[in-house]
Amino acid sequence: MTDQPAATARVTIDPDFGLGTVDPRLYGTFVEHMGRCVYTGIYEPAHSTADAHGFRGDVAELVRELGTGLVRYPGGNFVSGYHWEDGVGPADSRPRRLDLAWRSIETNQVGTDEFLGWARRQGVEPMMAVNLGTRGIDAARALVEYCNIPGGTAWSDLRVRHGARDPHDVKLWCLGNEMDGPWQTGHTTAVEYGRLAAQAGKAMRQVDPSIELVACGSSNAEMPTFGEWEREVLHETYDEVDYLSLHAYYEEKDGDRAGFLASGAQMDAYISDIVATADHVRAVRRSRKRMKLSFDEWNVWYQSRFPGERALPLEETPRLIEDTYSVTDAAVVGSLLMTLLRHADRVAIACLAQLVNVIGPIRSEPGGPSWRQTTFHPFALTAKYARGTVLRTEVSGPLIETRQYGPVDALDTATTLDPETGALTVLAVNRGQEHDLGLRAALRGFASRYRVVEHLMIADADPDAANTEENPDRVTPRPVRETRVTGDGELEAVLPPVSWSVIRLAPEDRA
Ligand code: AHR
């Protein structure tokens, strides 16, 4: 190593400190009928790379590289006004509808069968949402019948007639979306929503007992009903549902970049609060079931730049919230993923919102190229390497003062251990903006010595650097060759300011 950093953060990595197993559904994403996520995002029949079904081949390739294993669909706010029947059957007789959520014209050229066909070809698990805004029990159970019953009933036979001979077999279902939000079509109270969700869920499970259900938690932790909403909803739904949802979007506010870089602290407290609330309901109900969480919308989103849906002109496929992400945003996304990993004991599902164009890690131009945003890289590399058991690591090192969250560790980190191969993956963010940060991780209690396989880093002299159509690879992960395991069995690395790293270690006695 060359220059010694001024400050060092220390952790201990011990195989006995397992806190949970990474559910692969933690690396989910989200496709909503919003802006250009579907049309000219994943789907563009006139594009030179389009497949026989009209889906873009270049975007499909990037989705594969991103490594997402689960995709939520079709909304989002969109689902609360959606008639799923509009999106099935012959495409040329599907109605053009006014979508109230985003004041857009929905052509319905992509619907249930097209999306689920795409998901199957992509090798991703679908997570479907039903409309509990303008519709209810009957439309929800009909959709499950359409998707999951092999045949011999009106809705399943209709699917077969539409060309989908085999059932789609969708296992994961969201009972509505953000029903606590005044912006939501059909916004309601926790008790009313909870009763409807329980009854819709019951009917859906009567159609297919193998499905899993997600009830809506709060739209974010700042909602006035936060906490009470979860308590009341869970009181109504506890026995019927398998997961409670969380949503959160982060952005730099009032120039507080230190606070933005510490967004994981907010996510961490948010998850802990919901775990406590769910466990309170469990205790009151004397239930043995421990509710799992589905963080099915999270990302960096510059919401302050969004004019609000009422200000939008009525258009088909408008450009909505196509945020361009920077190195700083990538560090925050990487850090939020670490927070999710550190709650792997309760958070089973998480969806980066969204997948393409609409605050997506992938961007595409109509008739043009597609490229990876900066945030693509921490997601793809975490999804690829952070598998197995999450190990508890306590950081001891310098703190950073933030306006929003008080003092936070300069080092944000998470470690996973692959029990099969013994491979360790250490993820690390230096939240500091000025100085390099030393990382020293004592590898304790392992039978083998470890070696560094690879250290990849996102960092840049300009923390606002971004990837664009003209310069799509301005920010890419680059290898760091100086990182090593010392003779004393300590991983030693230097993390530049506002950087994200993945450090892969393998036992020396394994190839
Ligand atoms: O992802 C964009 C929107 O954010 C979703 O439609 C909604 O659920 C959330 O408020």
TrEMBL record:
<keyword id="KW-0326">Glycosidase</keyword>
<feature type="region of interest" description="Disordered">
    <location>
        <begin position="463"/>
        <end position="489"/>
    </location>
</feature>
<dbReference type="InterPro" id="IPR017853">
    <property type="entry name" value="GH"/>
</dbReference>
<feature type="compositionally biased region" description="Basic and acidic residues">
    <location>
        <begin position="471"/>
        <end position="487"/>
    </location>
</feature>
<dbReference type="InterPro" id="IPR013780">
    <property type="entry name" value="Glyco_hydro_b"/>
</dbReference>
<dbReference type="InterPro" id="IPR010720">
    <property type="entry name" value="Alpha-L-AF_C"/>
</dbReference>
<feature type="domain" description="Alpha-L-arabinofuranosidase C-terminal">
    <location>
        <begin position="296"/>
        <end position="499"/>
    </location>
</feature>
<dbReference type="Pfam" id="PF22848">
    <property type="entry name" value="ASD1_dom"/>
</dbReference>
<protein>
    <recommendedName>
        <fullName>non-reducing end alpha-L-arabinofuranosidase</fullName>
        <ecNumber>3.2.1.55</ecNumber>
    </recommendedName>
</protein>
<comment type="subunit">
    <text>Homohexamer; trimer of dimers.</text>
</comment>
<dbReference type="InterPro" id="IPR055235">
    <property type="entry name" value="ASD1_cat"/>
</dbReference>
<keyword id="KW-0119">Carbohydrate metabolism</keyword>
<comment type="similarity">
    <text>Belongs to the glycosyl hydrolase 51 family.</text>
</comment>
<dbReference type="Pfam" id="PF06964">
    <property type="entry name" value="Alpha-L-AF_C"/>
</dbReference>
<keyword id="KW-0378">Hydrolase</keyword>
